[in-house]
Design a protein that fits this description.
Elements: H1 19-22, E1 28-35, E2 39-46, H2 53-62, E3 78-87, E4 95-106, E5 114-122, H3 128-145, H4 148-158, E6 168-173, E7 176-181, H5 222-226, H6 233-242, E8 246-249, H7 253-266, E9 275-277, H8 285-291, E10 302-306, H9 310-314, E11 321-323, H10 364-376, E12 388-390, H11 401-406, H12 414-440, H13 470-480, H14 484-487, H15 494-503, H16 507-532, H17 535-540, H18 544-564
Parallel strand pairs: 8-10, 8-11, 9-10
Antiparallel strand pairs: 1-2, 1-5, 3-4, 4-5, 6-7, 11-12
GO cellular component, one term: recycling endosome
GO molecular function, one term: guanyl-nucleotide exchange factor activity
Protein name: Protein DENND6A
Length: 567
Amino acid sequence: MSRSPSFSVKPELASEVDEKSLLQWVVAFCIIRFDLEQGQLIEECYPPGSLTQSEELEVSFSSFPDSVSQNHNRSSIHDCIFFFRIKRHNAPDSLNIKPSEIVERHDERLKRGGEQKSVVILSHSPYTSVFRPLLQIMGPLYFDIGNKALNYIAAYVSKWPVPVPGQQVELPIGNASLKVNLPPSHSLPSDNGFFEDSASSLAPLLPSNLSIPQGLFHDSDLFGTFRGLLMQLWKLWELLLVGEPILIIAPTPPQCCEAVAGLVSLVAPLLFSVDFRPYFTIHDPEFAKLNSLQEGSSFPPMILGVTNLFFLKALRNMPHIVSVGSPMSNSSRFTVGSKGLPGGIPGQNEGFSIQHLSFRKFTPANFLNAVKLRRDGPLCLMTEHKEAVWTNYAAVTKPDTSILNRLIDAGLSPRVEESMSVVNNDILRRHFLELTTNFLAPFGPYFRANTPSEASSPFADPPPLPSFNAEEFLTSLSARGPGKFLQKRMRSNWMDLYRRFLNGHNFLPWFQRKRAVAEQEQYKLWRQARVKTNIHQLIRTMSELEIVDSFNAIERHLQGEMQASPF
Protein backbone atom coordinates (compact mmCIF):
# COMPACT_ATOMS: atom_id res chain seq x y z
CA MET A 1 0.00 0.00 0.00
CA SER A 2 1.86 3.08 -1.18
CA ARG A 3 1.21 6.75 -1.17
CA SER A 4 0.77 8.52 -4.47
CA PRO A 5 4.03 10.23 -5.46
CA SER A 6 2.06 13.35 -6.33
CA PHE A 7 0.96 13.77 -2.70
CA SER A 8 3.23 15.82 -0.46
CA VAL A 9 3.01 17.34 3.01
CA LYS A 10 4.63 20.33 4.68
CA PRO A 11 6.33 19.19 7.92
CA GLU A 12 6.28 22.71 9.35
CA LEU A 13 2.49 22.46 9.64
CA ALA A 14 2.73 19.86 12.42
CA SER A 15 2.99 22.54 15.11
CA GLU A 16 0.16 24.62 13.66
CA VAL A 17 -2.90 22.56 14.64
CA ASP A 18 -5.84 24.67 15.82
CA GLU A 19 -7.72 22.09 17.91
CA LYS A 20 -10.84 24.25 18.16
CA SER A 21 -11.05 24.53 14.37
CA LEU A 22 -10.20 20.84 14.01
CA LEU A 23 -13.21 19.94 16.16
CA GLN A 24 -15.54 21.47 13.56
CA TRP A 25 -14.68 18.52 11.34
CA VAL A 26 -12.92 15.85 13.38
CA VAL A 27 -12.98 14.78 17.03
CA ALA A 28 -9.83 12.66 16.82
CA PHE A 29 -7.61 10.44 14.70
CA CYS A 30 -6.79 6.99 16.06
CA ILE A 31 -4.43 4.15 15.20
CA ILE A 32 -5.56 0.77 16.51
CA ARG A 33 -3.55 -2.45 16.42
CA PHE A 34 -4.77 -5.99 16.91
CA ASP A 35 -2.53 -7.69 19.46
CA LEU A 36 -2.53 -11.49 19.60
CA GLU A 37 -2.51 -11.57 23.40
CA GLN A 38 -4.30 -8.37 24.40
CA GLY A 39 -6.72 -7.89 21.53
CA GLN A 40 -7.48 -4.45 20.09
CA LEU A 41 -5.22 -1.69 21.40
CA ILE A 42 -5.22 2.04 20.65
CA GLU A 43 -1.63 2.89 19.76
CA GLU A 44 -2.20 6.58 19.11
CA CYS A 45 -5.03 9.08 19.58
CA TYR A 46 -4.66 12.66 18.35
CA PRO A 47 -5.41 15.11 19.89
CA PRO A 48 -4.53 13.37 23.17
CA GLY A 49 -7.37 13.04 25.69
CA SER A 50 -10.11 13.30 23.06
CA LEU A 51 -11.81 10.12 24.25
CA THR A 52 -12.72 8.65 27.61
CA GLN A 53 -11.38 5.21 28.51
CA SER A 54 -14.74 3.55 27.81
CA GLU A 55 -14.99 5.33 24.45
CA GLU A 56 -11.49 4.18 23.52
CA LEU A 57 -12.51 0.61 24.30
CA GLU A 58 -15.68 0.88 22.23
CA VAL A 59 -13.87 2.44 19.28
CA SER A 60 -11.14 -0.19 19.32
CA PHE A 61 -13.65 -3.06 19.31
CA SER A 62 -15.66 -1.51 16.47
CA SER A 63 -12.62 -0.85 14.30
CA PHE A 64 -12.09 -4.48 13.28
CA PRO A 65 -14.43 -7.01 11.65
CA ASP A 66 -16.63 -8.87 14.10
CA SER A 67 -15.89 -12.13 12.31
CA VAL A 68 -13.56 -13.42 9.60
CA SER A 69 -15.25 -12.34 6.39
CA GLN A 70 -12.47 -11.92 3.85
CA ASN A 71 -10.05 -14.36 2.28
CA HIS A 72 -6.47 -13.12 2.41
CA ASN A 73 -3.54 -14.03 0.24
CA ARG A 74 -0.50 -14.25 2.50
CA SER A 75 1.72 -12.51 -0.03
CA SER A 76 -0.44 -9.44 -0.44
CA ILE A 77 -1.77 -6.51 1.54
CA HIS A 78 -5.50 -6.24 2.00
CA ASP A 79 -7.48 -3.26 3.14
CA CYS A 80 -11.06 -2.19 3.44
CA ILE A 81 -12.88 0.97 4.46
CA PHE A 82 -16.11 1.03 6.46
CA PHE A 83 -17.73 3.26 9.05
CA PHE A 84 -19.65 2.82 12.29
CA ARG A 85 -21.54 4.86 14.88
CA ILE A 86 -21.31 4.73 18.65
CA LYS A 87 -22.83 6.69 21.49
CA ARG A 88 -20.63 9.20 23.23
CA HIS A 89 -20.73 9.40 27.00
CA ASN A 90 -21.24 12.74 28.77
CA ALA A 91 -21.12 14.67 25.50
CA PRO A 92 -23.68 16.94 23.81
CA ASP A 93 -23.73 14.82 20.67
CA SER A 94 -25.30 11.41 21.13
CA LEU A 95 -23.65 9.55 18.27
CA ASN A 96 -20.42 9.68 16.35
CA ILE A 97 -19.60 8.67 12.80
CA LYS A 98 -16.25 6.91 12.54
CA PRO A 99 -14.84 5.87 9.17
CA SER A 100 -12.23 3.15 9.62
CA GLU A 101 -9.61 1.71 7.29
CA ILE A 102 -8.27 -1.73 8.12
CA VAL A 103 -4.91 -2.72 6.70
CA GLU A 104 -3.38 -6.19 6.99
CA ARG A 105 0.38 -6.47 6.48
CA HIS A 106 1.98 -9.89 6.25
CA ASP A 107 5.27 -10.49 8.05
CA GLU A 108 6.60 -14.00 8.62
CA ARG A 109 8.57 -12.78 11.66
CA LEU A 110 5.32 -12.15 13.59
CA LYS A 111 3.40 -14.88 15.39
CA ARG A 112 0.41 -14.81 13.07
CA GLY A 113 2.51 -14.15 10.00
CA GLY A 114 1.28 -10.57 9.83
CA GLU A 115 -0.34 -7.67 11.66
CA GLN A 116 -3.64 -5.84 11.43
CA LYS A 117 -3.99 -2.13 12.04
CA SER A 118 -6.93 0.21 11.74
CA VAL A 119 -6.77 3.91 10.96
CA VAL A 120 -9.86 5.70 12.31
CA ILE A 121 -11.29 9.18 11.85
CA LEU A 122 -13.76 10.21 14.56
CA SER A 123 -16.30 12.91 13.78
CA HIS A 124 -19.57 14.32 15.07
CA SER A 125 -20.88 14.66 11.52
CA PRO A 126 -21.86 12.04 8.90
CA TYR A 127 -19.61 13.52 6.21
CA THR A 128 -18.62 10.21 4.63
CA SER A 129 -18.08 11.95 1.29
CA VAL A 130 -15.25 13.86 3.01
CA PHE A 131 -13.81 11.23 5.30
CA ARG A 132 -13.64 8.35 2.84
CA PRO A 133 -11.17 10.11 0.47
CA LEU A 134 -9.39 11.66 3.47
CA LEU A 135 -8.86 8.18 4.89
CA GLN A 136 -7.56 6.98 1.53
CA ILE A 137 -4.86 9.65 1.84
CA MET A 138 -4.24 9.32 5.56
CA GLY A 139 -3.95 5.51 5.66
CA PRO A 140 -1.06 5.17 3.17
CA LEU A 141 0.61 8.26 4.64
CA TYR A 142 0.56 6.72 8.12
CA PHE A 143 2.15 3.50 6.90
CA ASP A 144 4.80 5.56 5.12
CA ILE A 145 5.84 7.97 7.89
CA GLY A 146 4.18 6.70 11.08
CA ASN A 147 2.40 8.75 13.76
CA LYS A 148 3.59 12.05 12.28
CA ALA A 149 0.91 11.55 9.63
CA LEU A 150 -1.79 12.25 12.23
CA ASN A 151 -0.29 15.64 13.05
CA TYR A 152 0.11 16.54 9.38
CA ILE A 153 -3.46 15.63 8.47
CA ALA A 154 -4.83 17.37 11.59
CA ALA A 155 -2.95 20.54 10.63
CA TYR A 156 -4.54 20.62 7.19
CA VAL A 157 -8.03 19.80 8.49
CA SER A 158 -7.82 22.52 11.17
CA LYS A 159 -7.34 25.06 8.39
CA TRP A 160 -10.45 24.02 6.50
CA PRO A 161 -13.35 26.49 6.45
CA VAL A 162 -16.34 26.00 8.73
CA PRO A 163 -18.56 23.25 7.25
CA VAL A 164 -21.71 24.63 5.62
CA PRO A 165 -24.39 21.94 5.20
CA GLY A 166 -25.82 21.56 1.72
CA GLN A 167 -22.88 23.27 0.04
CA GLN A 168 -20.13 22.08 -2.24
CA VAL A 169 -16.75 22.65 -0.59
CA GLU A 170 -13.16 22.37 -1.73
CA LEU A 171 -10.86 21.17 1.03
CA PRO A 172 -7.07 21.33 0.53
CA ILE A 173 -5.02 18.44 1.85
CA GLY A 174 -1.32 18.51 1.02
CA ASN A 175 -0.99 19.34 -2.66
CA ALA A 176 -4.35 17.65 -3.31
CA SER A 177 -7.90 18.92 -2.86
CA LEU A 178 -11.16 17.23 -1.89
CA LYS A 179 -14.16 18.60 -3.77
CA VAL A 180 -17.30 17.27 -2.07
CA ASN A 181 -20.97 18.02 -1.44
CA LEU A 182 -22.03 18.16 2.21
CA PRO A 183 -25.47 16.84 3.20
CA PRO A 184 -28.12 19.51 3.85
CA SER A 185 -28.88 20.69 7.38
CA HIS A 186 -32.44 19.36 7.27
CA SER A 187 -31.01 15.83 7.08
CA LEU A 188 -28.59 16.23 10.00
CA PRO A 189 -29.53 15.28 13.57
CA SER A 190 -30.18 18.30 15.79
CA ASP A 191 -27.27 17.30 18.05
CA ASN A 192 -24.87 18.11 15.22
CA GLY A 193 -25.25 21.77 16.12
CA PHE A 194 -26.66 22.85 12.76
CA PHE A 195 -30.09 24.39 12.43
CA GLU A 196 -31.71 25.11 9.15
CA ASP A 197 -32.61 28.78 8.89
CA SER A 198 -33.75 29.11 5.32
CA ALA A 199 -37.07 28.59 3.63
CA SER A 200 -35.58 26.27 1.03
CA SER A 201 -37.27 23.23 2.49
CA LEU A 202 -40.41 24.71 4.01
CA ALA A 203 -42.57 23.09 1.35
CA PRO A 204 -41.66 19.70 -0.07
CA LEU A 205 -40.58 20.54 -3.61
CA LEU A 206 -38.56 18.30 -5.93
CA PRO A 207 -35.20 19.98 -6.63
CA SER A 208 -34.14 20.36 -10.24
CA ASN A 209 -30.43 19.89 -9.51
CA LEU A 210 -29.68 16.48 -8.03
CA SER A 211 -25.95 17.20 -7.82
CA ILE A 212 -26.88 19.02 -4.61
CA PRO A 213 -27.42 16.33 -1.95
CA GLN A 214 -30.91 16.09 -0.49
CA GLY A 215 -30.11 13.77 2.41
CA LEU A 216 -27.50 11.69 4.16
CA PHE A 217 -25.19 9.36 2.23
CA HIS A 218 -26.15 10.77 -1.16
CA ASP A 219 -23.04 9.14 -2.65
CA SER A 220 -23.83 5.60 -1.47
CA ASP A 221 -23.94 2.89 -4.14
CA LEU A 222 -27.65 2.12 -3.94
CA PHE A 223 -27.79 0.17 -7.19
CA GLY A 224 -24.59 -1.80 -6.65
CA THR A 225 -25.63 -2.82 -3.16
CA PHE A 226 -29.25 -3.77 -3.82
CA ARG A 227 -29.06 -4.88 -7.44
CA GLY A 228 -30.15 -8.38 -6.39
CA LEU A 229 -33.10 -6.97 -4.41
CA LEU A 230 -34.33 -4.15 -6.63
CA MET A 231 -37.97 -5.25 -6.50
CA GLN A 232 -37.81 -5.06 -2.71
CA LEU A 233 -36.66 -1.41 -2.54
CA TRP A 234 -40.20 -0.03 -2.32
CA LYS A 235 -41.02 -2.30 0.61
CA LEU A 236 -37.78 -1.28 2.32
CA TRP A 237 -38.60 2.38 1.65
CA GLU A 238 -41.86 1.97 3.57
CA LEU A 239 -40.16 0.19 6.47
CA LEU A 240 -37.69 3.06 6.73
CA LEU A 241 -40.41 5.67 6.44
CA VAL A 242 -42.40 4.26 9.37
CA GLY A 243 -39.29 3.53 11.45
CA GLU A 244 -39.35 -0.25 11.67
CA PRO A 245 -36.31 -2.13 13.07
CA ILE A 246 -34.22 -3.78 10.33
CA LEU A 247 -31.26 -6.16 10.55
CA ILE A 248 -28.84 -6.02 7.59
CA ILE A 249 -26.58 -9.04 7.03
CA ALA A 250 -23.57 -8.77 4.69
CA PRO A 251 -20.36 -10.79 4.22
CA THR A 252 -17.98 -7.86 4.81
CA PRO A 253 -18.00 -4.59 6.79
CA PRO A 254 -17.77 -2.38 3.64
CA GLN A 255 -20.81 -4.07 2.07
CA CYS A 256 -22.60 -3.90 5.39
CA CYS A 257 -22.17 -0.17 5.99
CA GLU A 258 -22.83 0.63 2.33
CA ALA A 259 -26.18 -1.18 2.59
CA VAL A 260 -27.20 0.74 5.71
CA ALA A 261 -26.11 4.04 4.13
CA GLY A 262 -28.06 3.21 0.96
CA LEU A 263 -31.22 2.51 2.93
CA VAL A 264 -30.95 5.73 4.95
CA SER A 265 -30.52 7.67 1.69
CA LEU A 266 -33.78 6.22 0.33
CA VAL A 267 -36.02 8.48 2.44
CA ALA A 268 -34.39 11.83 1.55
CA PRO A 269 -35.40 14.62 2.12
CA LEU A 270 -37.02 13.26 5.30
CA LEU A 271 -35.05 13.76 8.52
CA PHE A 272 -34.18 10.17 9.44
CA SER A 273 -34.49 9.93 13.22
CA VAL A 274 -34.18 6.18 13.68
CA ASP A 275 -30.92 5.03 15.25
CA PHE A 276 -28.79 3.42 12.56
CA ARG A 277 -25.56 1.51 13.06
CA PRO A 278 -23.72 0.95 9.76
CA TYR A 279 -21.50 -1.64 11.41
CA PHE A 280 -22.65 -3.21 14.67
CA THR A 281 -20.67 -5.76 16.69
CA ILE A 282 -21.30 -7.97 19.72
CA HIS A 283 -18.98 -5.69 21.72
CA ASP A 284 -21.33 -2.71 21.41
CA PRO A 285 -22.96 -1.93 24.80
CA GLU A 286 -26.35 -1.81 23.06
CA PHE A 287 -26.04 -5.49 22.14
CA ALA A 288 -26.51 -6.65 25.74
CA LYS A 289 -29.77 -4.69 25.94
CA LEU A 290 -31.06 -6.11 22.67
CA ASN A 291 -30.02 -9.64 23.59
CA SER A 292 -31.91 -9.40 26.89
CA LEU A 293 -35.25 -8.56 25.27
CA GLN A 294 -37.90 -11.04 26.30
CA GLU A 295 -39.75 -13.23 23.83
CA GLY A 296 -42.50 -11.16 22.21
CA SER A 297 -40.94 -7.81 23.17
CA SER A 298 -40.75 -5.18 20.46
CA PHE A 299 -37.37 -4.14 19.13
CA PRO A 300 -36.56 -0.43 19.36
CA PRO A 301 -36.58 1.38 16.01
CA MET A 302 -33.09 0.94 14.59
CA ILE A 303 -31.13 -0.31 11.60
CA LEU A 304 -28.28 -2.66 12.43
CA GLY A 305 -25.62 -3.67 9.92
CA VAL A 306 -23.77 -6.86 10.91
CA THR A 307 -21.43 -9.48 9.49
CA ASN A 308 -21.44 -11.85 12.45
CA LEU A 309 -24.03 -14.57 11.80
CA PHE A 310 -24.42 -15.03 15.55
CA PHE A 311 -26.88 -12.12 15.40
CA LEU A 312 -29.31 -14.32 13.47
CA LYS A 313 -29.74 -16.41 16.61
CA ALA A 314 -29.27 -13.70 19.22
CA LEU A 315 -31.78 -11.35 17.53
CA ARG A 316 -34.02 -14.04 16.07
CA ASN A 317 -37.15 -12.01 16.84
CA MET A 318 -36.05 -9.08 14.67
CA PRO A 319 -39.11 -8.54 12.41
CA HIS A 320 -37.27 -7.54 9.22
CA ILE A 321 -34.01 -9.09 8.00
CA VAL A 322 -32.20 -8.15 4.79
CA SER A 323 -29.26 -10.08 3.38
CA VAL A 324 -27.10 -8.31 0.79
CA GLY A 325 -23.73 -8.56 -0.87
CA SER A 326 -21.38 -11.17 -2.22
CA PRO A 327 -18.75 -13.11 -0.25
CA MET A 328 -16.30 -12.59 -3.14
CA SER A 329 -16.27 -8.80 -2.86
CA ASN A 330 -13.19 -7.37 -1.15
CA SER A 331 -12.85 -3.69 -1.94
CA SER A 332 -13.33 -0.46 -0.08
CA ARG A 333 -15.82 0.71 -2.67
CA PHE A 334 -17.32 -2.56 -3.71
CA THR A 335 -19.66 -3.49 -6.50
CA VAL A 336 -21.94 -6.32 -5.50
CA GLY A 337 -22.00 -9.29 -7.83
CA SER A 338 -25.50 -10.16 -8.93
CA LYS A 339 -27.13 -13.34 -7.84
CA GLY A 340 -30.50 -12.19 -9.00
CA LEU A 341 -33.62 -11.91 -6.93
CA PRO A 342 -34.55 -14.89 -4.79
CA GLY A 343 -36.45 -17.04 -7.21
CA GLY A 344 -34.54 -15.76 -10.23
CA ILE A 345 -33.81 -17.87 -13.29
CA PRO A 346 -31.57 -20.80 -12.27
CA GLY A 347 -28.02 -20.56 -13.55
CA GLN A 348 -28.35 -16.91 -14.58
CA ASN A 349 -25.76 -15.45 -12.24
CA GLU A 350 -23.16 -14.18 -14.69
CA GLY A 351 -24.60 -10.68 -15.01
CA PHE A 352 -27.47 -8.38 -14.21
CA SER A 353 -30.17 -8.34 -16.85
CA ILE A 354 -32.98 -5.81 -16.77
CA GLN A 355 -35.00 -7.96 -19.13
CA HIS A 356 -35.38 -10.53 -16.37
CA LEU A 357 -37.15 -8.07 -14.08
CA SER A 358 -40.47 -8.25 -15.86
CA PHE A 359 -40.50 -12.04 -15.44
CA ARG A 360 -39.75 -11.95 -11.73
CA LYS A 361 -43.21 -10.85 -10.73
CA PHE A 362 -44.49 -14.41 -10.90
CA THR A 363 -43.02 -17.58 -12.35
CA PRO A 364 -43.08 -21.14 -11.01
CA ALA A 365 -39.35 -20.87 -10.22
CA ASN A 366 -39.91 -17.57 -8.41
CA PHE A 367 -42.76 -18.99 -6.41
CA LEU A 368 -40.97 -22.19 -5.39
CA ASN A 369 -37.77 -20.38 -4.41
CA ALA A 370 -39.72 -17.78 -2.45
CA VAL A 371 -41.58 -20.51 -0.58
CA LYS A 372 -38.30 -22.30 0.17
CA LEU A 373 -36.63 -19.11 1.42
CA ARG A 374 -39.61 -18.28 3.60
CA ARG A 375 -39.73 -21.82 4.98
CA ASP A 376 -36.00 -21.96 5.73
CA GLY A 377 -35.94 -18.46 7.22
CA PRO A 378 -32.84 -16.29 7.66
CA LEU A 379 -31.00 -19.08 9.51
CA CYS A 380 -30.30 -20.58 6.08
CA LEU A 381 -27.57 -17.92 5.83
CA MET A 382 -25.56 -19.98 8.32
CA THR A 383 -24.78 -22.47 5.53
CA GLU A 384 -24.87 -20.30 2.40
CA HIS A 385 -25.05 -16.57 1.81
CA LYS A 386 -28.06 -15.45 -0.22
CA GLU A 387 -29.52 -12.06 -1.08
CA ALA A 388 -33.03 -11.97 0.33
CA VAL A 389 -35.55 -10.10 2.48
CA TRP A 390 -37.45 -11.80 5.31
CA THR A 391 -40.46 -9.85 6.55
CA ASN A 392 -44.20 -10.23 7.06
CA TYR A 393 -44.79 -6.58 6.17
CA ALA A 394 -47.28 -6.06 3.33
CA ALA A 395 -46.21 -3.03 1.30
CA VAL A 396 -48.66 -0.40 0.09
CA THR A 397 -46.36 0.94 -2.63
CA LYS A 398 -46.00 -1.05 -5.83
CA PRO A 399 -42.56 -1.47 -7.45
CA ASP A 400 -42.25 0.95 -10.36
CA THR A 401 -41.29 -1.25 -13.31
CA SER A 402 -40.87 1.80 -15.54
CA ILE A 403 -37.98 2.87 -13.31
CA LEU A 404 -36.48 -0.62 -13.29
CA ASN A 405 -36.67 -0.80 -17.09
CA ARG A 406 -34.61 2.39 -17.36
CA LEU A 407 -31.70 0.87 -15.46
CA ILE A 408 -28.71 0.00 -17.61
CA ASP A 409 -27.19 -3.47 -17.81
CA ALA A 410 -23.45 -3.20 -17.21
CA GLY A 411 -22.57 -6.66 -18.50
CA LEU A 412 -19.33 -8.18 -17.25
CA SER A 413 -16.93 -5.26 -17.59
CA PRO A 414 -16.01 -3.81 -14.14
CA ARG A 415 -15.07 -0.46 -15.69
CA VAL A 416 -18.38 -0.17 -17.54
CA GLU A 417 -20.23 -1.46 -14.50
CA GLU A 418 -18.84 1.32 -12.32
CA SER A 419 -19.89 3.98 -14.83
CA MET A 420 -23.33 2.48 -15.27
CA SER A 421 -23.81 2.27 -11.50
CA VAL A 422 -23.49 6.06 -11.37
CA VAL A 423 -26.28 6.41 -13.95
CA ASN A 424 -28.44 3.78 -12.25
CA ASN A 425 -27.94 5.37 -8.83
CA ASP A 426 -29.13 8.71 -10.20
CA ILE A 427 -32.26 7.07 -11.64
CA LEU A 428 -33.11 5.30 -8.40
CA ARG A 429 -32.26 8.23 -6.14
CA ARG A 430 -34.34 10.69 -8.18
CA HIS A 431 -37.31 8.32 -8.13
CA PHE A 432 -37.26 7.76 -4.37
CA LEU A 433 -36.65 11.45 -3.76
CA GLU A 434 -39.75 12.18 -5.83
CA LEU A 435 -41.67 9.43 -4.03
CA THR A 436 -40.78 10.76 -0.57
CA THR A 437 -41.39 14.36 -1.58
CA ASN A 438 -44.87 13.55 -2.85
CA PHE A 439 -45.62 11.52 0.25
CA LEU A 440 -44.70 14.49 2.48
CA ALA A 441 -46.49 17.06 0.29
CA PRO A 442 -49.85 16.93 2.19
CA PHE A 443 -48.07 18.30 5.28
CA GLY A 444 -46.94 21.41 3.36
CA PRO A 445 -49.73 23.76 4.58
CA TYR A 446 -48.62 23.25 8.19
CA PHE A 447 -45.22 24.80 7.38
CA ARG A 448 -46.49 27.77 5.37
CA ALA A 449 -45.29 31.08 6.79
CA ASN A 450 -47.70 34.04 6.79
CA THR A 451 -46.77 37.56 5.68
CA PRO A 452 -48.47 40.71 7.02
CA SER A 453 -51.44 41.75 4.93
CA GLU A 454 -51.96 45.36 3.82
CA ALA A 455 -54.80 45.74 6.28
CA SER A 456 -52.83 44.47 9.29
CA SER A 457 -50.05 46.07 11.30
CA PRO A 458 -46.62 44.43 11.00
CA PHE A 459 -46.04 45.38 14.65
CA ALA A 460 -48.69 42.94 15.80
CA ASP A 461 -47.70 39.40 16.65
CA PRO A 462 -47.86 37.10 13.61
CA PRO A 463 -50.64 34.51 13.63
CA PRO A 464 -49.62 31.01 14.70
CA LEU A 465 -49.02 28.37 12.04
CA PRO A 466 -51.99 26.10 11.34
CA SER A 467 -52.47 23.68 14.23
CA PHE A 468 -52.01 20.00 13.49
CA ASN A 469 -54.42 17.29 14.54
CA ALA A 470 -53.63 13.80 13.31
CA GLU A 471 -57.23 12.61 13.00
CA GLU A 472 -58.34 15.77 11.21
CA PHE A 473 -55.37 15.50 8.88
CA LEU A 474 -56.17 11.88 8.01
CA THR A 475 -59.86 12.65 7.46
CA SER A 476 -59.02 15.55 5.15
CA LEU A 477 -56.39 13.53 3.30
CA SER A 478 -58.76 10.60 2.82
CA ALA A 479 -61.35 12.92 1.28
CA ARG A 480 -59.03 14.56 -1.24
CA GLY A 481 -56.78 11.58 -2.06
CA PRO A 482 -53.00 11.14 -2.16
CA GLY A 483 -52.43 12.98 -5.44
CA LYS A 484 -51.82 11.68 -8.95
CA PHE A 485 -48.21 10.64 -8.43
CA LEU A 486 -48.95 8.40 -5.44
CA GLN A 487 -52.37 7.25 -6.58
CA LYS A 488 -51.01 5.21 -9.48
CA ARG A 489 -48.14 3.82 -7.39
CA MET A 490 -49.99 2.83 -4.22
CA ARG A 491 -52.69 0.31 -3.46
CA SER A 492 -56.13 1.18 -2.17
CA ASN A 493 -55.01 0.93 1.48
CA TRP A 494 -52.57 3.84 1.07
CA MET A 495 -54.03 5.55 4.15
CA ASP A 496 -52.50 2.81 6.31
CA LEU A 497 -49.04 4.04 5.37
CA TYR A 498 -49.84 7.57 6.53
CA ARG A 499 -51.21 6.21 9.82
CA ARG A 500 -48.05 4.20 10.40
CA PHE A 501 -45.91 7.20 9.52
CA LEU A 502 -47.74 9.43 12.02
CA ASN A 503 -47.21 6.82 14.75
CA GLY A 504 -43.63 6.07 13.74
CA HIS A 505 -40.34 7.36 15.06
CA ASN A 506 -39.57 9.69 12.13
CA PHE A 507 -42.69 11.85 12.01
CA LEU A 508 -42.51 13.99 15.15
CA PRO A 509 -38.80 15.01 14.94
CA TRP A 510 -39.22 15.85 11.24
CA PHE A 511 -42.49 17.75 11.82
CA GLN A 512 -41.12 19.72 14.78
CA ARG A 513 -37.95 20.65 12.87
CA LYS A 514 -39.98 21.84 9.88
CA ARG A 515 -42.34 23.84 12.12
CA ALA A 516 -39.40 25.50 13.86
CA VAL A 517 -37.91 26.47 10.50
CA ALA A 518 -41.28 27.81 9.32
CA GLU A 519 -41.72 29.87 12.49
CA GLN A 520 -38.22 31.26 12.08
CA GLU A 521 -38.95 32.17 8.46
CA GLN A 522 -42.22 33.82 9.47
CA TYR A 523 -40.40 35.86 12.12
CA LYS A 524 -37.95 37.08 9.45
CA LEU A 525 -40.76 38.06 7.08
CA TRP A 526 -42.56 40.10 9.75
CA ARG A 527 -39.32 41.71 10.90
CA GLN A 528 -38.54 42.75 7.32
CA ALA A 529 -42.05 44.18 7.01
CA ARG A 530 -41.57 46.23 10.20
CA VAL A 531 -38.25 47.62 8.95
CA LYS A 532 -39.82 48.71 5.65
CA THR A 533 -42.91 50.27 7.24
CA ASN A 534 -43.35 54.06 7.16
CA ILE A 535 -44.36 54.53 10.79
CA HIS A 536 -45.60 58.12 10.29
CA GLN A 537 -47.89 57.07 7.48
CA LEU A 538 -49.13 54.08 9.46
CA ILE A 539 -49.98 56.16 12.55
CA ARG A 540 -52.29 58.41 10.50
CA THR A 541 -54.56 55.43 9.83
CA MET A 542 -54.66 54.26 13.47
CA SER A 543 -56.97 55.03 16.33
CA GLU A 544 -55.49 56.15 19.64
CA LEU A 545 -55.88 52.66 21.11
CA GLU A 546 -54.14 51.08 18.09
CA ILE A 547 -51.26 53.57 18.43
CA VAL A 548 -50.77 52.60 22.09
CA ASP A 549 -50.87 48.90 21.18
CA SER A 550 -48.34 49.44 18.39
CA PHE A 551 -46.03 51.37 20.74
CA ASN A 552 -46.12 48.53 23.24
CA ALA A 553 -45.47 46.01 20.44
CA ILE A 554 -42.49 48.02 19.13
CA GLU A 555 -41.06 48.24 22.64
CA ARG A 556 -41.50 44.48 23.09
CA HIS A 557 -39.82 43.72 19.77
CA LEU A 558 -36.88 46.02 20.57
CA GLN A 559 -36.36 44.33 23.93
CA GLY A 560 -36.40 40.96 22.20
CA GLU A 561 -33.83 42.11 19.64
CA MET A 562 -31.56 43.48 22.38
CA GLN A 563 -31.74 40.25 24.39
CA ALA A 564 -30.98 38.17 21.30
CA SER A 565 -28.02 40.36 20.30
CA PRO A 566 -24.61 39.01 21.36
CA PHE A 567 -23.29 42.56 21.84
